[in-house]
Specification:
The protein is mainly α and about 290 residues long. Helices cover about 75% and strands about 0% of the residues. It is globular.
């Protein structure tokens, strides 16, 4: 997917894509990446929600991402790997479309190139705006993945809102989710732009899929290392049932630190994270621009 760079957004620089173009390309690319990598993400969620007590026992249910996927297929059928696909697409359409659409538009509308600190602030702010819109979809996606829920996503939105309330239901775990997505998104955007520019300026590389692949790998690794703790907290905080149900992100973090659980989740997160970003950036090579 390539944005027509000759397009000019109203009020922006010459050559800057319009907001609806940037939003559409980002949302479409993110949705494709979501469909491709959702089985790994579902396995990651199941592993994150597996308690330490279970992990230390001989009767551990999931012993890794591949084992989790095999077990789910055997016990619940292949469709279970794509549990939460509909809210997942809602989430990517809203979150990625908003965060990158606004980020690129604001960057292109500025006078001159933005400094690194300014780009970081902009990336965090646009990511926060995106997750405000997408948090209800995040909650539903995690619950579909964790519990193999049946029924339509739209009916589940209404059910959660009516039984648990808007803020305690659809915006459950919002604080941890806001931190998670702001950290991961800002790291992803800045590391992609910075590494791509480094490769083009210092290595014999051209602006083609190889450079996007290398920059995507770099962005995925950096975002995973910095965002994994917040990702684990966000997933656990969204649950209605289980060991961590009803706890705040701070309380969950304290329990996990005492049980030394964060390190185990980092590798699981990295496998899905890099797969998602490779698919996303290869399908959307010119946004964000390495300027």
């Amino acid at each position: 997917v390539e944005v027509p760079m000759a397009a000019r957004g109203e009020g922006g620089r010459a050559g800057a894509p319009a907001l609806h173009t940037t939003f559409g390309v980002a949302a479409a690319s993110a949705s494709l990446a979501e469909m491709v990598t959702l089985p790994l993400d579902t396995a990651k969620v199941r592993l994150q929600l597996q308690s330490r007590a279970e992990a230390d026992s001989h009767a551990v249910r999931y012993r890794g991402p591949l084992h989790a996927m095999r077990t789910m297929v055997a016990e619940e059928g292949p469709r279970s790997l794509w549990g939460g696909l509909t809210p997942g697409l809602h989430r990517q359409f809203l979150f990625t479309g908003i965060r990158l659409g606004l980020y690129e538009r604001a960057k292109q509308s500025s006078e001159g190139d933005l400094a690194l600190g300014e780009r970081i602030v902009l990336a965090v702010a646009t990511s926060a705006a995106g997750i405000v819109a997408a948090n209800p979809s995040d909650v539903l996606k995690v619950r579909f993945q964790a519990h193999s829920l049946k029924g339509s996503a739209l009916s589940m939105y209404a059910k959660v809102a009516s039984t648990e309330g808007l803020f305690k239901g659809l915006y459950k775990g919002f604080g941890a989710n806001l931190a998670r997505n702001s950290i991961i998104s800002a790291t992803e955007i800045i590391s992609y732009e910075t590494s791509k520019r480094f490769f083009l300026d210092n290595l014999p590389m051209r602006d083609d899929w190889r450079t996007h692949l290398a920059a995507g790998c770099t962005a995925g690794f950096a975002a995973t290392v910095l965002g994994s703790p917040a990702d684990v907290l966000g997933t656990k905080a969204m649950q209605k049932h289980g060991r961590y149900a009803g706890l705040t992100a701070t309380q969950i973090a304290r329990k996990m630190v005492r049980r030394h659980q964060f390190r185990a989740h980092l590798i699981r997160k990295r496998k899905r994270s890099e797969s998602w970003r490779l698919t996303f950036f290869l399908r959307r090579p010119h946004l964000p621009n390495a300027s």
